[in-house]
Target: Alkylation response protein AidB-like acyl-CoA dehydrogenase
Amino acid sequence: MTDIDLLPSEIEEDLRDSIRSLLESKSDSAFVASLYDDPDTDTSALDAAWAEELGLAALLVPEELDGAGATISEAAVVSEEIGRAVAPVRFFSSAVVATTLAVRLGATELVERLAAGEAFAAVACPATSATLDSGVTVVESGEDAVVNGTVPGVIEAAGADELIVVSGSGDDTIVASVAAADAKAEAFLTLDQSRRLADVTFADAPARVLGRGAQAADAVRAATVIGRTILAAEQYGVAQRSFDLALDYIKERRQFGRTIGSYQAIKHRMADLWLAVSQAGAAVTYAARVASAWQAGEETIEEAELCSLVAGSYASTVAVNAAEEALQMHGGNGMTWEFPLHLYLKRAKADELILGHAAAQRRQLAPLIDITLD
Model:
């Protein structure tokens, strides 16, 4: 593989400007905080803006399927900005994980609907699971199937139009799609109300088989690797914004006749935090670049998987630490609703559990780099 350039491309910077501008106008911190008072706040205008107007729903769809044909690095930039704004959008669940499954299984009709922003999909697996396995029963008959079982804590299942179910592993893998109207999704109160969870129950739900066997297993692995990489980018965005908020505050807040940022102890803590956030950014960018190279056929999925585990486990830890440190820098003010810090801490803590905790990701990583665990 050619040398990796960690500097952003012009396309990535343009994309960053577009998504940041959109989120600043349609999803500021007050709008996100309102979701905690009323979880049923209408987000359809925001959904239409990012998915249709900016075309981000089609970002990872190949051009031959009328998509944008973007790289994973470009998708990571979008996710980074979503993290900076803790925006309540279905980009990760629908435009990344579900769309990757649909594209790799050749589910053209579903891909077209998702890419056009006409429908949103969720993968019916527990949010805290390191895999996409739904753990439900799928009985197939040709291209049709019947699904039974309950999946706890599915990301953004409520309000989704399609629920994608993964059953089994290896050559026994089946991926099927269930219309949301044929399942029951019960949303519940969660720490991060900007990304809601729901328990999903399938009772003899009719499904359409999207893929089976080795092809399905490969698609699930690809969606997991890409999803983990994109999630790490979001965690980096959360960490960046938390650091920026803390920096702005300590430069303004005065105590004993001087700004608190002038105290040496605060300087040292901020320097340590800046270093950690910068390192997370480098790990995420490298992982996204390697994943893009794999996407272009210039790198192996094994290398992309390894890098996604490094970036995911590190960015996850740094995001939580950055949000906690930012809150500490704000003193008592950080615990109030007048400041948006709680939104970042909640997103960081919730993201920490998606696709497996950082500790679980490090356990997955260990054998890939020849480390033997007791």
Remarks:
- Residues 35 and 41 are 6 Å apart (CA to CA).
